[in-house]
Amino acid sequence: MTVKLIGLIRLVDQMAFDEYRGKVGQTVEKFRGRVTWRGSVVQCYWNELACDAFDSFVELEFPTLEDSARWVGSEDYGKLLDVRSRAMRLTLLAIE
User: Fold this and answer.
1) How many CB atoms lie within 10 A of CB 57?
2) Can you tell me whether residue 47 is helix, strand or coil?
3) Which tens digits make up the pLDDT trace of 15-27?
4) Residue 27 pLDDT
5) Which of 10, 25, 4, 6 is nearest to 76 (CA)?
6) What strand order describes the sheet that includes 34-40?
7) Would you identify the CATH topology of the domain 3-95?
8) Residue 28 CB neighbour total at 10 angstroms
9) Structural domain boundaries of the chain?
10) CA-to-CA distance for 46 and 80, rounded, in angstroms?
11) Is 83 exposed, middle or buried (0-12, 13-18, 19+ CB in 10 A)?
12) What's the pLDDT tens digit per position in 25-54?
C-alpha cells in the first residue's frame, strides 16, 4: 500500500519558494517517492478545524510509511529546512 503525504502551504516568500520547489523533488526521489500533484487552492468550503489559511498544496507518494519517514528525517531534506522556513508555513501529514 502506498502512502501519500499531503502538504498544506501558505506562501510567504515566492523567491524562496521557487528555490525550494526546484530542489525538493530530488530529495523525494532519493527515498523512492514522487511528487504527484501541486496546485493552488481556489476555494475552501469548510475549515471547521480552524487551520491557518493556506493557498497551495502538494501531494507526495511513497511506497511505504518508512520511506516517507526516512525522507522527512534525511540529511538531504534537512538541508532545505532553512529555505523552506523562509518560503512557507507548512502542515504536512501522511495518509494511507
Assistant:
1) 15
2) coil
3) 999 999 999 999 9
4) 98
5) 25
6) 34-40, 56-62, 3-11, 88-95
7) Alpha-Beta Plaits (3.30.70)
8) 22
9) 3-95
10) 32
11) buried
12) 999 999 999 999 999 999 989 989 988 889
